C-alpha cells in the first residue's frame, strides 16, 4: 500500500496531519527537535537510532516520510537513503540530515530529495521542504500561518547525548569508535550551539585523519563531556 493513501485531511495549522515520519537519528537531542517539528506539524513520528533499527521498522510499516542522518553508528545513512529511493522499497519523500554541509552532494546522489543542515529548528522551513515534495493532491491549498519561532529541544536530551558519548569514550578508544564519536559530537554540539564542544570534536576528527597521538586530546574531551553531564566519571 502507498503510505500516502492513509493520509487524513491536513489543516492550516497542521499541514502534515496524517503523515508518519521515520526519523533515523542517533542523537536524542536532534531527534527531540524533529519530534517537536513533527508534532507541531500534525505528523506522527517513529525513531530509529541506527541502520539496523531502521530496517526492522521498515519490515513492519511504511512511513510517509523518512529523515535520515548521514552519520550513524553502524554505517552511512546514504546507504539507507539509496534503499528508500529505489526499487520496491521506495518512499515518496526522503530527506537527509547532517551537521556537515559538505555532504549534501553525496546525499543528493544517494537519492535524497531534501537536505536539512543541522541545526534544524525552523518549523516553517521544515514544513515547506516536506510539503513541496508531496504530490499535489495531498497538499492543502490556500494560505496557512507560518511560525517564525525556533524549536527548542529539551536540554535533558542533550545531557543524555553527552552521557552516551562519555560512556563510549570510557569504554573504547579504537579508531573506528573515535571517528564515530567525533562525527556524533560535531552534529550534537552544532544542534545545541555548543561551540566549545564542536571545536573539540572537529579537532579530534582532524587528529585522527592525520594519524596523530590523541592522549591529551582525549583527556580534554572527557573533561568537556563530564562538565556537560554534570557528574564526575572515571577516565
Automatic annotation (TrEMBL):
It comes from Pseudooceanicola marinus. Pfam families: Response_reg (PF00072). The lineage of its organism: Bacteria, Pseudomonadati, Pseudomonadota, Alphaproteobacteria, Rhodobacterales. GO terms for biological process: phosphorelay signal transduction system. The gene is kdpE. This is KDP operon transcriptional regulatory protein KdpE. Keywords: Phosphoprotein. InterPro entries: CheY-like_superfamily, Sig_transdc_resp-reg_receiver. The keyword Metal-binding does not apply. Residues 20-133 form the Response regulatory domain. The modification 4-aspartylphosphate is found at residue 69.
Amino acid at each position: 500500500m502507498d503510505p500516502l493513501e492513509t493520509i487524513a485531511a491536513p489543516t492550516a495549522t497542521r499541514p502534515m496531519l496524517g503523515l508518519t515520519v521515520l526519523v533515523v537519528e542517533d542523537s536524542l537531542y536532534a531527534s527531540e527537535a524533529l519530534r517537536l517539528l513533527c508534532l507541531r506539524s500534525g505528523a506522527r513520528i517513529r525513531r530509529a537510532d541506527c541502520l539496523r533499527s531502521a530496517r526492522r521498522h521498515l519490515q513492519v510499516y511504511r512511513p510517509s516520510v523518512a529523515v535520515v542522518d548521514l552519520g550513524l553508528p553502524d554505517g552511512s545513512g546514504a546507504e539507507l537513503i539509496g534503499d528508500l529511493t529505489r526499487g520496491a522499497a521506495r518512499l515518496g519523500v526522503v530527506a537527509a540530515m547532517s551537521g556537515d554541509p559538505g555532504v549534501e552532494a553525496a546525499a543528493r546522489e544517494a537519492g535524497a530529495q531534501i537536505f536539512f543542515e543541522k541545526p534544524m529548528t525552523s518549523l516553517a522551513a521544515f514544513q515547506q521542504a516536506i510539503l513541496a515534495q508531496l504530490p499535489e493532491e495531498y497538499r492543502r491549498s490556500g494560505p496557512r500561518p507560518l511560525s517564525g519561532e525556533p524549536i527548542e529541544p529539551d536540554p535533558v536530551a542533550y545531557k543524555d547525548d553527552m552521557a552516551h558519548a562519555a560512556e563510549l569514550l570510557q569504554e573504547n578508544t579504537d579508531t573506528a569508535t573515535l571517528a564515530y564519536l567525533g562525527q556524533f559530537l560535531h552534529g550534537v554540539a552544532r544542534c545545541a550551539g555548543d561551540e566549545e564542544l564542536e571545536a573539540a570534536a572537529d579537532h579530534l576528527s582532524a587528529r585522527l585523519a592525520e594519524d596523530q597521538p590523541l592522549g591529551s586530546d582525549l583527556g580534554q574531551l572527557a573533561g568537556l563531556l563530564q562538565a556537560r553531564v554534570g557528574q564526575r566519571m572515571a577516565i
